[in-house]
Structures are given as structure tokens and as C-alpha cells.
Amino acid sequence: MEDKIEKTIDLKAPIERVWRALTDHKEFSAWFLVALESPFAVGETTAGNITYEGYEHMRLEATVTTMETNKLFAFNWNPYDDGETKPGETPQTLVEFKLEEVDGGTRLTVIESGFSKLPDDQRRVDAIRRNAGGWEQQVQNIANHVGA
After folding, report:
1. Which is deepest, 12, 34, 72, 140, by most CB within 10 Å?
2. pLDDT surpasses 60 at 132
3. What are the structural domains, with CATH classification, of the chain?
4. CB contact at 8 A, 25 and 35
């Protein structure tokens, strides 16, 4: 069983610009389509409702684990929201945004791992399928946001 999702995109934007889009909670909210209520800080949880049409009932809660400027931004979150699961009831996955300077811009790699911790096979399969599609859309969203 696959335990991670990985998406890579080359952006025609400087690494500092991509870093800001990832780690400034207002910019993150704009491209990720969520209304985060507080800034990102290591060891802290930020939360907000999804603003994508049809998903407004869903809430994102992310606890930041790593902020290595222009290199790595990571947080834990609940990968599976069925509308009934309460925060803390489902094991969390780790989402990592890795940045690397490349000719003409920045390579962004998004990795979500830890799906094997989910309690049952169907939930694991559903979460991987749904989130793989979600990350495909989100890397395009950030590309549009940073003008790449």
C-alpha cells in the first residue's frame, strides 16, 4: 500500500516569492482556498474553513512542524474529513513543501506521507485518491498565485 503522495512543479518565481506564498498565512489562504485565522508558527496550530465552493463546511487544521527559510515548510493535518470525524480522532499525515533553486525559478515538491497510520484500508484508499487529486490542483493554484 502506497504511504505517500508526491507532486513536483517548476515555478518561474524566485525562491523567496514561493516561500512567502507558502508560509504567509494570508497568501497561503488565497491560493489554497482556505480562510486561515492565524499565522504559521512552529509548534502552533492554525485553522480555518475551506473557501472552495462546495467544501465550505470543511475545516483545515494544521500544526507546523518545520519552517526552514527557503528550504522546507511542513505541517501535520488530518488527511480525511468525512464531516463526522472530530479533530484528533484520526491519525495525522505530514505535509512537506520542499524548495530548491533551479534555472529560471524554483522547484517545489509537495509530499504528503503517513497514510499507513489511517485506521482502515478503505479510509486510506479514499484519502490517498482524494488528496492526490487535491495536490494536483494545489500545485497549479500556487503556480498561478506566484505568476509562474
Report:
1. 34
2. yes
3. 4-146 (3.30.530.20)
4. no
pLDDT confidence band for 88 (50 / 70 / 90) = low
Nearest to 114, CA basis, from 133, 131, 138, 137: 131
**CA 85 from centroid of its chain's CA atoms:** 19
CB 34 within 8 A of CB 133: no
DSSP codes, 3-61? -EEEEEEEESS-HHHHHHHHHSHHHHHHHHTEEE-S---TT-EEEEEE-STT-TT-EEE
Q: Which residues pair with 99 in a beta bridge?
A: 108
51 touches 40 (CB < 8 A)? no
- Map grid coordinates 465552493 to a residue: 53
Q: Are 145 and 21 in contact (CB under 8 A)?
A: yes
Angle formed by the axes of helices 15-23 and 25-32, nearest 10°: 90
Least confident piece of the model among 23-32, 52-61, 70-79: 52-61
pLDDT at residue 58, as a whole number:
85
For the CA atoms of the chain, what is the radius of gyration? 15
